[in-house]
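look at this fold:
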Amino acid sequence: MKKIYITLLLLSLILSAAAKETTNSIQARKLFEKTYQMVFGPQGSSLHYNVNIIGIYKTQGDIIYKGNKSKFEESRYASWNDGHSFYKVDKKKKTVEIYDPNAPDRDKYASKFTFVPDNYTYSLSSNQTEYALTINAKKGVDGIKHVKAVIDKKSGAPKSLRIKLFWFWTTVKISNFHSGNINDHLFVFPKSRFKGYQLTDKR
């Protein structure tokens, strides 16, 4: 009887721990989906970023998203995607390349940063002001392996990301985040700003 009692107790503890883990995973996934929608949803969003790749490479800039449109700009590089054409600017080389928005060769790094939510597991912890969301790739998933996201409890806005790709971590600090009220005009390539640049149409 004693052995049976101990076995049932252990089973109860295991199931309880599993239930908590499952509940935590569900809550984490819901938080991820809510934040993801704030950033990439049809209402659009804008943010400022500071990137640090293991102290070797640092940059900062601004990104705007809305549906299948996007714009980003930093000191050397910039791009505009109006949903029909993708313009990639190199300010140092003074070049503009035009691609089909869905062309795989428009950005050689884009495929390495693809993210399919169902390919990952989710867990969550928090303090008084922030959520800490941990996202881990399932076995065999290529590209992004781990993500650690800090999300503001009050606004739901992302504050920072640590992304592991291959063996190195990239830290992205996010500020000036806004969701909604994004004008489509922002995604129109400003030709007048880049007069004299070499233009190559790769569509």
